[in-house]
Amino acid sequence: MEHNKYHLSLKTAFASEFSFYLKAHNFHWNVEGPLFGQLHELFERIYSEVYGSIDTFAEHLRALQLYTPASLQKFSMLTTVDDENEVPMWSDMLQELLADSDKMAEIFRITFDMAEANGDHGLSNFLADRQDAHKKHSWMLRSSLK
Which of 22, 42, 77, 89 has the most crowded CB, counting CB atoms within 10 A? Predict the structure, then answer.
């Protein structure tokens, strides 16, 4: 496998995960409506879990001798998670974060396959765990929309 494509995919996954964290934190701060308390707590659980994985993800990249993207400009260039500059309605927050979480699960599935193909089994274990975490986040968000 071409290392440049693999490395770019890892950096894209990292930038996307950080962007997902930021959006979940944004929604935690700015949610309003009849389900405020529940959604405020749900968004906090999600952003806290994701944020807790960021440093480990960065260390996996450094172990591969890659520099970790670490600026808003780099994140903006690499992320697949669209920025949210408005304050959407609470139901739109749920739908948007759900779509992004599903996207993240797919990104982690793809990068897992690449890590396995490169023999990076410790990294692939981490990526599999991230995929599972996003599947759980998606379940929580999807269930909140019903």
Answer: 42
Task: From residue 43, give the alpha-carbon distance in Å to each of 56, 134, 140.
Answer: 21, 13, 10
Cβ atoms of residues 114 and 1 within 8 Å: yes
Q: What is the dihedral sign for C-alpha 42, 129, 88, 70?
A: positive
Fold designation for 3-144: Ferritin (1.20.1260)
Tokens representing 99 are 């779509």
Rounded to two decimals, the pTM is: 0.96
Q: Is 145 helix (H, G, I), strand (E, B) or coil?
A: coil
Tell me: the pLDDT tens digits for 54-111?
999 999 999 999 999 999 999 999 999 999 999 999 999 999 999 999 999 999 999 9
Token pair recorded at residue 9: 């995919």
